Amino acid sequence: MLSAWNIVGLLLWIALIVYAVFIIHNIAVRRSRIIINEHYNFTFIHHLKSFVQILILFVGIGFMFFQTFKTDVNTDNVNITRSYQPLILDTNGNNSYYVRIKSGSNPNLNQSYHYLVKGKRLSVSSNDASVLVGTSNAVNVQKSAVKWNQHLADELDSKYQRAWIVDAVATYKKSFWNGIGLHAGHQARRYTLIRVPDNSFIYNK
Predict the structure, then answer these.
(1) What is the predicted pLDDT for the residue at 12?
(2) Which residues, 6 or more positions from 189, have their beta carbon under 8 angstroms from its beta carbon?
(3) Looking at residue 136, what is its pLDDT?
(4) N or C: which end of the chain has fewer CB within 10 A?
(5) Strand ranges (DSSP E) for the chain?
(6) Low-confidence ranges of the chain (pLDDT < 50)
(7) Residue 3 DSSP class
(8) What is the distance, to the nearest Å, from the Cα of residue 111 to the centroid of all Cα atoms in its chain?
(9) Phi, psi of 78 (to 5 degrees)
(10) pLDDT at 143
């Protein structure tokens, strides 16, 4: 766990398990008493109590499942950090390029982008990245997760001659509500923007 707030979610799950055991025991005890004392005469009150107890349990489980497994990310519940680096020209012996695009055997599957920065070759799925070519500013960023800063892009264009990458990482804030879903402090989403001067610096494999 990356934050003490996640203990809130853990305690709530434990409380639900304890409550589930309690109502099973409680219903069984009341049922036994009715069988012994009232000869199977199950009253409306007995059924109503059982229904309310089970309803509360299912509402609690539904709420916790929603909080734990939801993938909704917005700028209110995450912190966004950005890091940027210049791209380094790479070569395969015949071509020089900034980005190598590799496709699988099935053209409908996702592509992967491979690039070189500070002597390290890195790769990222096209699901989590965009390639920005030339003077185009049509940034295909998942804005629900990462709020893009166009002013920063313009500065990087000037500094690195339109050959750079930016990694934007959204991390769940360490808060009570994120703790309920056991998300506090965990990475929510990562998005990479790759900028190249023009299509001649892209190598398709």
Answers:
(1) 95
(2) 73, 78, 128, 142, 145, 146, 169, 170
(3) 63
(4) C
(5) 78-86, 90-91, 96-97, 99-102, 112-117, 120-125, 129-133, 164-172, 187-196, 202-204
(6) 143-144
(7) S
(8) 20
(9) -135, 155
(10) 47
